[in-house]
Amino acid sequence: LVSNDFKSLEPDTFLNDIIIDFYLKYLLHKVLPPEKRTLVHMFSTMFYKRLTSSHKSKAKEEQGLSSAQKKHSRVKTWTKNVNIVEKQFVIIPLGEHSHWYLVIIIKPGQIVFDAESRQKGDGEPLFLVLDSLGGGKSGAVENIRHYLEEEWQAKNPGLPEVSFSKKEMKT
How many CB atoms lie under 10 A from the CB of residue 165? Predict the structure, then answer.
């Protein structure tokens, strides 16, 4: 951490992305018990920014792709060594207009692998939005729903498409 990062901890200042990433990694590696860490995937603060940003340099390779496919192509390498659908919790920190909040994807694999467990009462897949200002952040959640669908297709070519729609996963 740099001294400018520490200054963002002072009263009446905004936390920066480095402090947010540091704290989330601290929670994952120092607070969460080791046996639980494999159940969680945590993206950095840059993930959502990259997912939703457009890059003119990639315009040619994104030609002919749907909006969701273009967004997924910007971050597809971020999960090359992990299948996030198999995780119990996927944590995505988002910063918009100097305000930070979290979107947590809970049990996304139940959509695909374990629909019967919902009927048994083992919980259900859902999006949890933790925002001190309230609101469902429907635009961000919708972007993440589309990302999950594209990620499923990329990791499981040839298998049927899977919907992570509002009907399948509440917010």
Answer: 12
